[in-house]
Design goal:
The structure is a homodimer. Chain A is of the alpha/beta class. Chain A has two domains: 6-178, NAD(P)-binding Rossmann-like Domain (Rossmann fold); 182-310, N-(1-d-carboxylethyl)-l-norvaline Dehydrogenase, domain 2 (Orthogonal Bundle), CATH 1.10.1040.10. Chain A is 48% helix and 17% strand. Chain A contains 13 helices and twelve strands. Chain A has helices spanning 14-25, 38-44, 66-69, 84-91, 110-118, 157-167, 180-200, 206-210, 213-236, 245-257, 265-271, 278-291, 297-311, and strands at residues 6-10, 29-33, 46-49, 55-57, 61-63, 74-77, 100-103, 123-128, 131-134, 139-144, 148-152, 174-176. In chain A, strands 5-2-1-6-7-8-11-12 form an eight-stranded mixed beta sheet, with helices on both faces. In chain A, a hairpin with a 5-residue loop joins strand 3 (46-49) and strand 4 (55-57). Chain A starts with 5 loop residues before the first strand and ends with a helix. The A-B interface holds A 197, 200-202, 204, 208, 212, 214-215, 218, 221, 297-298, 300-305, 307-309, 312 and B 197, 200-202, 204, 208, 212, 214-215, 218, 221, 297-298, 300-302, 304-305, 307-309, 312.
Chain lengths: 313, 313
């Protein structure tokens, strides 16, 4: 196998614990920065249920501060996007000259922040199409499975190889993205309509969106706004990649039609009274659309409603 | 004074009880069709608090069926718009050859139904810009006050005189509308943005809409859609009256800026878990806009969200 790498998981919620756990399972030397689950995992290990196979890490490395972990080969930052302002301070103690950083977070404009803080060349992004929940402390439930799309911030294919190698022995299915910005926007083509409507319609699952002709039609109209904004943003960044309108709409609805009673991440935050990732998933795409003079009235309305709902969290 | 009239109030909620009470106070012979408050009012009378003067009807005529009331000079139908399908049956026993009907309900397309059932010539409309709540049974609280705009379904000025005469001795401030459809749409210029956003932003008062730059701007964008749809609908009905865009926007925001912590009627229904008047206030205006090919993306999104929220009531 490839050389085992030292890895720091910054933000060991459901996503960080699951993917960090898979990398530890594959033989890497993984340290988890933990808050809520620190004591439980230290005493009882990390237990994961998954359709790709359950596993337990009996005695994982856990830490309560990034300084305890120190410099590593790879930082995987899986904080919620609402914690972006804390990310620099939490990540820095784990970064030395050759450290690479994989941003495993939802939304737009996050890698740009990491690139400002730590330089562009070491920044990677992972887009997880999945559903993972935390159970009682120390337990993580991986429910729905899809690939993780990996990209390099500068779309450097040689750099991307190093990220693919990291995951090569793991059970995680990986897709390589030749254009990170294109992949980000494609994921937003799903997240903006479905996360947005699932919350503003009162906290509903996605089957109720695709199964209701009016909401399905509205989800499609919102998606068309995102496609137009995304293509304008890609053009503004001199990216050749373009979102194929019909193909993406067909794929996103085809996917959602098979997903059953699915709770979007934003809807879970809403239902649990937690802060929703509004700026990264909605606010930054809206800001870019408005700067590029793309009309996005539905995205603007969803964003205004979600910001107001979020202000009461 | 003018000849006292016999009046049946069909739907004696807050609105019906208040305005019926004012007409009784002015000397008319008013019968109230009551459900929830029947026993309380029969025993203890109807008590009204109001900035225009508190009053009590010690022994008002109350009935549990329209047949008990029988034919009258004026029927005032103050049902919730969600009960429109029951209106014909509830009103008919009170209608004889010369009976006039005043529809005191929110939304678009209601007079048309009464005109189908009872003929156009006898149909009037009252638009109440007010805030009235029910307290404990037998108590009504009139909080905010504005005029009631009266119009005739066919805009016949002679007919309209009869409606103005009805209210002449009352303490209710009346405005005469030369174009009922125009007045309906003007009221929707307020109700659609403010009722819509107050619910979908999580159940907020209107001061939080006008006081938040993003929501204020969104309310204005929604209002512009309503103005455009209204003007197209007025033109389609060969009405000369036109909504003056700038004047209406200025007036509606000026009004709302002075209203303080105001709960819209739809927001009150939402907060109390009751059926919201979605079809009359949102669905029918949207339907007309779409028939006339006026782009109303924000109205469409609000309507879809409100219908979904309403389906859980």
């Amino acid at each position: 196998m490839n050389q085992p790498q030292t890895i720091a998981i910054i933000g060991s919620g459901a996503i960080g614990s699951y993917y960090g756990g898979r990398l530890a399972e594959a033989g890497h030397d993984v340290s988890f920065l933990m808050r809520r689950d620190y004591s439980a995992v230290r005493q009882g290990g990390l237990k994961v249920t998954s359709p790709d196979g359950d596993f337990t890490l009996a005695n994982p490395k856990v830490a309560q501060s990034s300084e305890e972990i120190g410099a590593v080969d790879w930082v995987i930052c899986a904080l919620k996007a609402t914690s972006i302002e804390e990310a620099q301070e939490l990540v820095r103690p784990c970064v030395s000259t050759n450290t690479r950083i994989l941003v495993l977070m939802n939304g737009l404009g996050l890698e740009e922040r990491f690139a400002e803080w730590f330089g562009s060349k070491r920044i990677f992004c992972g887009l997880a199409f999945t559903c993972i929940n935390r159970g009682v402390p120390g337990h993580v439930h991986h429910l729905a499975y899809g690939p993780v799309t990996l990209g390099h911030f500068q779309n450097d294919p040689n750099e991307l190889e190093s990220a693919l190698a990291l995951w090569a022995q793991s059970k995680v299915q990986i897709d390589a993205s030749p254009s990170l910005l294109h992949s980000r926007w494609e994921k937003l083509c799903w997240n903006i309509p479905f996360n947005g409507l699932s919350v503003t319609a009162g906290g509903i699952t996605t089957d109720l969106i695709v199964g209701n002709p009016e909401l399905r039609n509205m989800a499609r109209s919102v998606m068309e706004e995102v496609i137009e904004a995304g293509n304008a943003d890609l053009a503004a960044h001199s990216e050749d990649a373009k979102i194929d309108r019909i193909a993406v709409i067909d794929r996103m609805f085809g996917l959602t039609d098979t997903m059953g009673v699915y709770r979007t991440s934003t809807m879970i935050d809403f239902a649990e009274g937690k802060a929703m990732e509004v700026e990264a998933i909605f606010g930054e795409p809206l800001h870019r659309a408005q700067s590029l003079r793309v009309a996005t009235p539905r995205l603007a309305l969803l964003t205004a409603l979600l910001r107001t709902l979020n202000s009461k969290r």
